[in-house]
């Protein structure tokens, strides 16, 4: 099994970064959260002049056996149809990634469909979707380990090519069910606190989904589960691959921009394995999915945006990226009191 070792960023430059931020032509703290982000990125990169290079969006796609148990209003086939939409350039993530001049890669982690080769498609299929975790573990431990390894290998390729900002998106009908169960068992919360409407369930559908997931959790009876065990039982191939990608990116000291509920559930698993990953993570937004705010609170996270989004695909993270750029740009390009000839406070 691949092991990861994530260390805290070096704090040597902490005082110097704070001094540089405080000497910009503004009142101390006037740029609010942007100042915290600038400090964080400076520490991650261990420099007073951080740079954001080749930001890359990786959208991991996979199908879920639990979809056949009526937890989503959409059929499983929509996963493959949306991947084809990504490859054709027609999805929201395509529009936003293009707007922000980002590379977009689609990773087939386990879609129940055979895609033709495409320049933007990475064929990393573990299997044709997971098993139905209502009756059996979603994947074997070997498949789970494979997904982590493959995810880490793909971010390594991007980082080796010069990328130092990774955005993680996902597509998989019923993957909110996996995320809800992971949150419930790893955070020790009742499943009722972790379930949302996903792709648009009505009240009756939400009640049914909650009952199915509660039955599934009771079926497996994981007591004090280790993260890998919970991931294998309840995860999706796209979630597991995202966990490996996040761990691999943080191990190489890249910046992680975390999207919505599914991506945050992947980070939850990763953080339980390597807590220092949180020092490399910026949380893009709070989604409208019911449990996301609770999960962010559990992780001690402060999201940048709250726009009522619940699309996934990495869209919220891409929309937040200009704020990250602004944080780095003010640190590097904004005048200081001294350089501008402006009097500092007495």
Describe, in plain words, how this protein is organized in 3D.
By secondary structure, the protein is an alpha/beta fold. The protein has one domain: 3-Layer(aba) Sandwich (Rossmann fold), CATH 3.40.50. It contains 13 helices and six strands. It has a six-stranded parallel sheet with strand order 3-2-1-4-5-6, with helices on both faces. α10 (261-273) links the parallel β5 (255-258) and β6. α1 packs antiparallel against α2 (33-45). The longest helix has 20 residues, at 141-160. The chain is globular, with a radius of gyration of 20 Å. The termini are far apart. The mean pLDDT is 96.
CATH second-level architecture: 3-Layer(aba) Sandwich
Spatially, the strands of the biggest sheet line up as: 3-2-1-4-5-6
CATH fold descriptor:
Rossmann fold
Poorly predicted residue ranges: none
Q: So, the CATH homologous superfamily?
A: Nicotinate-nucleotide-dimethylbenzimidazole phosphoribosyltransferase (CobT), large domain
Mean pLDDT: 96
How many distinct folded domains?
1
N-C termini distance: 59 Å
Order of helices and strands: HHEHHEEHEHHHHEHEHHH
Strand percentage:
5-15%
Radius of gyration: 20 Å
CATH top level assignment: Alpha Beta
Biggest beta sheet attributes: 6 strands, parallel
Assign an overall shape: globular
Overall strand count:
6
Helical amount:
40-55%
Structural class: alpha/beta
